[in-house]
Amino acid sequence: MERESMEFDVVIVGAGPAGLSTACKLMQLANENDQELMVCVVEKGSEVGAHILSGAVFEPRAINELFPDWKEKGAPLNTPVTEDHIYLLNDENSAKKLPNGITPKTMHNDGNYIVSMGNVCRWLAEQAEQLGVEVFPGFAAADVIYNEDGSVGGVITGDMGVGENGEQKDGYMPGMELRAKYTVFAEGCRGHLGKELISKFNLDKDSSPQHYAIGFKEIWDIDPAKHQPGLVVHSAGWPLDEATGGSYMYHAEDNQVFVGLIVDLNYDNPYLSPFDEFQRLKHHPVFKQYLEGGKRVSYGARAIAKGGFNSLPKMTFPGGLLVGCNAGTLNFAKIKGNHTAMKSGMLAAESIFEAIQENSESPVKELNSFTEKFKSSWVYDELFRSRNFGPAIHKLGNFWGGAFNTLEQNFFNGNLFFTMKDEHKDYAQLKEASNTQEINYPKPDGVLSFDKLSSVFLSNTNHEEDQPCHLQLKDPSIPIQINLPKYAEPAQRYCPAGVYEVIEDEGEKRFQINAQNCVHCKTCDIKDPSQNIRWVVPEGAGGPNYPNM
């Protein structure tokens, strides 16, 4: 097919913290050195920030480096952390507040801020545009362009106006070729092009399998009398009796709190529903005391790459790099990945700029200098010191794993002489339904707990209905013939948006995909026990439209 083509020096896929930091740093370097540079960022969301979901307690280390004058420039870091409360929830009614001295110091948040990362990214996009970056929201990078020598040469944006049957509709617009000397993939956790590149270039051959969690977040307007701006609450234990993970509540500005649950996706009971575990959580007195009398105003869910140091792939390949959560740079010991994502993008920008400056016509194909920069950076040091955190929780559970992590972080500064690893793949941990106990969740009360469909409504999710399904089954027979009898088809429960249903139709069971509901969390691509679901980008601008996540 003949496509329009545009040439850039650098194309960046994804307007999250990693991608936008790459763009800003590149243009800062170009402007400082009087070098002309054409940089573009493509973003699948309808606007920058529409698909950003993060807790978030934000560590300002990277933004201090990128924009030392961020306060004067109006960056939306408005709520400094004032207090850290950490609880062990014993059951649905009781909890023990833990002294800060017996919790890992990585969980302490002095000097950090409670933020909406969606709004931080909107601000970063403004800075990028002022520096000369072209930012294109509403354009999904659908395919990688490979040059004749096998190197990456850019991306192709998705076609617009293709019907569910694959035929062109009125107003059809073919995607464009965006060609570049270097392409930076900053798609976030489990990016579908990043996944392709890791496989094609065998980037993870020396790494442990990546590990994932699903993270939920709701924003609530609460009674001003209960609001404590800057209060950070974390908890472990209940309701996760059959999984590891933890919960949070952050008191942000404007009488709002952010509340959520993180559930590790290595759980083994196919009847477990992460969404329903989150709904149960809010009834616990630790959370209920703030939420009662309040109003839920937003909901979302997103997978989190939490394998850390041991699961990092090689981040360079001919023609480009993986940065941020697309590579898995999140530091789960801190429950933070925004500062590390930003720094990985800034290091990528330095390597790219040096290569272009040395030979703008024919820069080096593979940026080996990035690997050296990364290994000598504070990101690498931080991730190395936290390398045992996730494996300890996976192997020892929340309580004993937490005790080990406190010991290692507080007394040994993350420098114990051994490395724990978890070489198991998350999807392979599910037991067969016949060997597990069914879980009966309480019905939502519509006050503190809610159903999936009313939740998806609050995510402002929308997709053009007449388009090819972006949730592709490699074998359409597997859900009913294999996953249903063996695992009670867990897609019905691990999906946080009611996308997957098993329907009885004239005595026959069939698998229904409600792709319109998809919030782009990627959990299905990760957790399906048959690895039969492939998430690809829908038409540009489709998906959630998060206002302040």
From TrEMBL:
Keywords: 4Fe-4S, Electron transport, FAD, Flavoprotein, Iron, Iron-sulfur, Metal-binding, Oxidoreductase, Transport, Ubiquinone. Its EC number is 1.5.5.1. It catalyses: a ubiquinone + reduced [electron-transfer flavoprotein] = a ubiquinol + oxidized [electron-transfer flavoprotein] + H(+). SUPFAM superfamilies: 4Fe-4S ferredoxins, FAD-linked reductases, C-terminal domain, FAD/NAD(P)-binding domain. One of its GO terms (molecular function) is FAD binding. InterPro entries: 4Fe4S_Fe-S-bd, ETF-QO, ETF-QO/FixC_UQ-bd, ETF-QO/FixX_C, FAD-bd, FAD/NAD-bd_sf. PROSITE patterns: 4FE4S_FER_2, PROKAR_LIPOPROTEIN. It comes from the Bacteria. The keyword DNA damage does not apply. It holds the Pfam family Fer4_ETF_QO. Binds 1 [4Fe-4S] cluster. Its cofactor is [4Fe-4S] cluster; FAD. Residues 509-538 form the 4Fe-4S ferredoxin-type domain. Accepts electrons from ETF and reduces ubiquinone. This is Electron transfer flavoprotein-ubiquinone oxidoreductase. The lineage of its organism: Bacteria, Pseudomonadati, Pseudomonadota, Gammaproteobacteria, Alteromonadales.
